[in-house]
Each structure stands twice: as C-alpha cells, then as structure tokens.
Design brief:
Helix content is 40%, strand content 17%. By secondary structure, the protein is α/β, with parallel strands linked by helices. It has a domain of 197 residues: NAD(P)-binding Rossmann-like Domain (Rossmann fold, 3-Layer(aba) Sandwich), CATH 3.40.50.720. The strands form 4 sheets. Strands 3-2-1-4-5-6-11 form a 7-stranded parallel sheet, sandwiched between helices. The chain has a two-stranded parallel sheet with strand order 7-10. Strand 5, helix 4 and strand 6 form a beta-alpha-beta unit. The longest helix is centred in the last third of the chain and has 24 residues. The radius of gyration is 19 Å and the shape is globular. The model has no long low-confidence stretch (mean pLDDT 96). The protein binds uridine-5'-diphosphate. The site of uridine-5'-diphosphate (UDP) has 15 residues, from helix 5 and strand 8.
Length: 320
C-alpha cells in the first residue's frame, strides 16, 4: 500500500486517537485536528515524538487547511449522550459546517473522504436488527436530535459531494464502541458502570434496564473502519458487534469482570432512549470480510486496567 498523508478530525477523541495509531502503524503520516471540546490531548501523548504525527488544535467549523492530504477521516463530534446534550449547538455546527469544511479540503486535494456516522441515524428503531437500508425513526426535535440530525445531515452532504463533485467517499455507521481511552465521565453506560463497580457504588440503570445495546470492542471497530476505508465500497456500512445485551445484562457482566459487590439502582429513563439497538452486519461480512472477534466479557477484561487507572486518577485529582 502507498504511504499516505491522512487527516483525522476529532483525532484526540477515544476512537479518533485509536484510528491515528492504526494509520501510523500502517506507515502513513497523520495530522490529527481537534478543538479539544470533548477530545483529550492525553490520548495522543504517546505520539509526542513520532515524526509522522502532528496534532493541530483548531475548530473545523471555521475554514482551515493543513496542506496536501490523501485521505480525510472525519470523526469530529461530541459522541456521548451527556456530551452532546451539554454541547448541543457545537454538535450541530460540527456536523454541518465542520463536515462542509472537511469535505471542501478533500475536494481541494482530490483526497478520499471517510465519514464516521452512527447507529443513531436509525433513532429508536422499528426494524430489528438494523440494516443499512433502514431509514430510521428519529425524533427531529427531541433531546438526541442535535446528534442524530447532525449525523444524518453529514451523511447527506457526503453523498452530495460524491454525486455532484465525484468525490471518493465512504460512510461507516458505528454502533456502541468501548475500550481504553473512553473518558471516565462521558456518561456512557460502560464507563459509568466500570467506574461505579470499581468504586463500590451502586450501578445506575436507567429505566427497567431491559433496553438493549450491542457493544463492539475498540480494536474490532478500528479494523472494520480501516477495511472500509481501503475498500471500494462507499457505504453506508454498519460496523458493530451483533452480540446484543440488555443494560441489566451489561451491568451483570461488569460486576463479574470487576469482581464488585455493587448493587443496582434504578433511575429514570432519559427521553427518546432507544429501546433496542443491534447491527445487521451482513454487508460488512460479505463486502469487507469483516466481523468482530472480541465478545463483551473479553473486551471488558481488556479494558479493566485502563478503567482502574482512570478511577485511581480521579481519586488522585480529588485529593490534590
Ligand atoms: N445507561 C444506563 N446507565 C448509565 C448510562 C447509560 O442505564 O449510567 C443506559 C442508557 O439509558 C441507554 C444505554 O445505557 O439505554 C446506553 O447508553 P449510552 O449513553 O452508553 O449510549 P447510547 O447507546 O444511548 O447512545
């Protein structure tokens, strides 16, 4: 494979930083851009002395340029329900203005463009499991709409650049992904449960805990993203783990893996919280030859040391 110069927007985020690592491991040069609204420069600290890597702190909602590029990976966006409800307008701005600016750069340099989209495009789905052909069931004025509609709009703009400018584009729809470098306080279910279990606090289950999610370990997710990036398939393609768990089952797994005796505390279900979520990955299997290898229990075990350190870091910060 030719060595490329790639840009990763949202490169300091959980997934963005893992993608930077994977592209560098393939021998490419990477420029990560991030305004650090929800990203964390510490995720890239280990690349400080890597000559093929640079981090630029900038807001992609303003026009910008980082020099000639071969591939633009557009991941920038607050991605946890807590983050995008706090940063609702920046979420809509990055999905619209940010996506235009990233596409303009790809168009200027004749680069390929990769959009990280989301299973949230399916909303609270009435079709199960979700295939790429499903148009979704999204409340356009609900609390999640800032994220869902931003990503649906991003898909529409990406497809328009493909249609009108003949840009080479790829769209991935990412389902719940977890692993090291998730922000311990981002409010998502796995960081919350891991933190609570490790601190001996009650696990906060929203609603009756019977809603389902399908959790993909980060190394599987990144492998799927790269397979799509280097394929000829424009997408959208679902990349996620079809192993489906209720949130109560997920809590149980976290208790087993951490060896914690924490009890469960039931709390109100947030508005428009999807009742079920499971990817149909037949397209990824047939077109990309991809499927995940790591089940939830193994992935939680692989993440345990990271979460232990993150929780210890919180304690140290508090006592300081
Ligand atoms: N959830 C929960 N307790 C928590 C955090 C989340 O029960 O402390 C539930 C949430 O209501 C949702 C699921 O776990 O049904 C996944 O939530 P998350 O925020 O991780 O991602 P989502 O898939 O909703 O974007």
């Amino acid at each position: 494979m030719n060595k490329l110069r790639a840009m990763v927007t949202g490169g300091a985020g959980f997934l963005g930083s893992h993608l930077c690592d994977a592209l560098l491991a393939e021998g490419h040069s990477v420029v990560a851009v991030d305004n650090l609204l929800t990203g964390n420069a510490a995720n890239l600290e280990h690349l400080r002395n890597e000559p093929r890597f640079e981090l630029r702190r900038l807001d992609i909602c303003e026009p910008f340029d980082c020099g000639k590029l071969d591939y633009v990976f557009h991941l920038a966006c607050p991605a946890s329900p807590v983050d995008y409800s706090i940063h609702g307008i920046p979420t809509l701005r990055v999905g619209s203005l940010g996506t235009f600016n990233a596409l303009e750069l790809a168009n200027k340099y004749g680069a390929r463009f990769f959009l990280s989209s989301t299973s949230e495009c399916y909303g609270d789905p009435e079709e199960h499991p979700q295939k790429e052909s499903y148009w979704g069931h999204v409340n356009p004025i609900g609390p999640r709409s800032v994220y869902d509609e931003a990503k649906r709009f991003s898909e529409a703009v990406t497809v328009a650049y493909r249609r009108y400018h003949k840009l080479e584009t790829r769209i991935v729809r990412i389902f719940n992904t977890y692993g090291p470098r998730m922000q311990i306080n981002d409010g998502r279910v796995i960081p919350n449960f891991m933190k609570q279990a490790l601190r001996g606090e009650e696990l906060t289950v929203y609603g009756d805990g019977k809603q389902t999610r399908s959790f993909c370990y980060v190394s599987d997710e990144i492998e799927g993203l790269l397979r799509l990036a280097w394929s000829q398939e424009p997408g959208p393609v679902n990349i996620g783990n079809p192993g489906e768990f209720t949130i109560l089952e997920c809590g149980q797994k976290v208790l087993e893996v951490t060896g914690s005796n924490s009890k469960i505390k039931f709390m109100p279900l947030p508005q428009d919280d999807p009742k079920q979520r499971c990817p149909d990955i037949s397209k990824a299997r047939s077109v990309l030859g991809w499927e995940p290898k790591i089940n939830l229990e193994t992935g939680l075990k692989l993440s345990l040391e990271y979460f232990r350190q993150a929780v210890a870091g919180m304690k140290a910060t508090r006592s300081a």
